[in-house]
């Protein structure tokens, strides 16, 4: 049951930010592609104009909060999340195109930005067709696929610093590498990104995007809820191949299963819990290490109460 402090905080947020959606005891399984997760005490879906203000409001009051995107790379505890979840997603999505540049707010889906680029005959984002994350999340973890990465097209990013100042940061300052950015160590939240693309042929761009989408359909278990690639790629190896070669294709714990279509994915076969997924990940790592001497690190972000 929600305590009185959080009830009052929810009322204050609603009063100060009436355009944004404020919910209490909101099941996180409704907001993750894994379809897993207990309730957040307070769940905030802000309009773009409110994002910085809401985070400053919470920070100045020393309220506990966590920021997520559209939940595509997230495993949330069965016990939910204490405090406030600020979900920068659809409600705050904005895209503008000018010449060879696209400016997109953090909550805009990467696939939507790729489509906007194609419509404007701009090439460079074809790799992003079908990636389920937001621009904010893509920058934070340097998302990539099919030989492309977000670092290849970013010129600058507007961030909210840990002391709640809005700052423009050039791509060189982000230290983007495989599934990494300086934001992971230094803090700071992406508010928007400016992408520099090149003029291209719309039909050719669309063809490559269609081919990339089809590759995803052919190779990935899109028919089951998941959080995408579960483990990072170990240097010199592919996580999916290690898992397959360890004889773990189809290995299951409760409702969680190593995908039979692509061993790099853990899928929710039905009513999987976070505990199921965590135990499965622990088992997979142990068996892969036992056979090949290689540890697998989670690529999925794991958050929430009593999480191991």
Write down the Rg. 20 Å
Helix-strand string: HEEHEEEEEHEHEEEEHEEHEHEEEHE
Which percent bin holds the helix content? Answer: 25-40%
CATH fold group of the largest domain = Uridine Diphospho-n-acetylenolpyruvylglucosamine Reductase, domain 3
Descriptive notes:
- This protein folds into 3 domains: 4-91, Uridine Diphospho-n-acetylenolpyruvylglucosamine Reductase, domain 2 (2-Layer Sandwich), CATH 3.30.43.10; 93-217, Uridine Diphospho-n-acetylenolpyruvylglucosamine Reductase, domain 3 (2-Layer Sandwich); 223-303, UDP-N-acetylenolpyruvoylglucosamine reductase, C-terminal domain (Uridine Diphospho-n-acetylenolpyruvylglucosamine Reductase, domain 1).
- It is 29% helix and 26% strand.
- The protein contains 8 helices and 19 strands.
- The chain has helices spanning 4-16, 51-60, 110-119, 135-141, 183-186, 202-219, 239-245, 274-292, and strands at residues 21-27, 39-45, 65-68, 74-76, 81-87, 95-98, 101-105, 122-123, 144-145, 148-149, 154-160, 166-170, 189-196, 198-199, 226-229, 252-253, 256-258, 265-268, 301-303.
- The chain has a 5-stranded antiparallel beta sheet with strand order 6-7-13-11-12, with helices on one face.
- The two termini are 23 Å apart.
């Amino acid at each position: 049951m929600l305590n009185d402090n959080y009830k009052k905080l929810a009322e204050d947020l609603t009063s100060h930010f009436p355009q944004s959606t404020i919910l209490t005891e909101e099941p996180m399984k409704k907001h993750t592609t894994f379809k897993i997760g207990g309730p957040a005490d307070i769940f905030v879906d802000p309009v773009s104009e409110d994002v910085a203000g809401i985070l400053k409001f919470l920070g100045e009051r020393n309220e506990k909060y966590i920021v997520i995107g559209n939940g595509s790379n997230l495993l949330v505890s069965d016990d939910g999340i204490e405090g406030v979840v600020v979900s920068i997603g659809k409600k705050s999505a904005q895209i503008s195109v000018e010449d060879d540049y696209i400016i997109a707010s953090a909550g805009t889906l990467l696939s939507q930005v790729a489509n906007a680029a194609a419509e404007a005959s701009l090439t460079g984002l074809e790799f992003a067709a079908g990636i389920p994350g937001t621009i904010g999340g893509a920058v934070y973890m340097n998302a990539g696929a099919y030989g492309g990465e977000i670092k290849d097209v970013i010129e600058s990013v507007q961030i909210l610093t840990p002391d709640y100042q809005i700052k423009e940061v050039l791509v060189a300052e982000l230290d983007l590498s495989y599934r990494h950015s300086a934001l992971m160590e230094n803090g700071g939240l992406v508010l928007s990104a400016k992408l520099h693309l090149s003029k291209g042929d719309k039909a050719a761009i669309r063809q490559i995007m269609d081919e990339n989408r089809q590759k995803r359909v052919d190779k990935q278990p899109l028919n089951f809820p998941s959080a995408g690639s579960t483990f990072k790629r170990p240097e010199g190896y592919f996580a999916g191949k290690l898992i397959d070669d360890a004889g773990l294709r189809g290995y299951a714990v409760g409702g969680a299963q190593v995908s039979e279509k692509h061993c790099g994915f853990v899928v929710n076969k039905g009513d999987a819990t976070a505990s199921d997924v965590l135990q499965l990940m622990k088992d997979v790592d142990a068996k892969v290490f036992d056979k090949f001497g290689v540890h697998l690190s989670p690529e999925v972000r794991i958050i929430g109460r009593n999480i191991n």
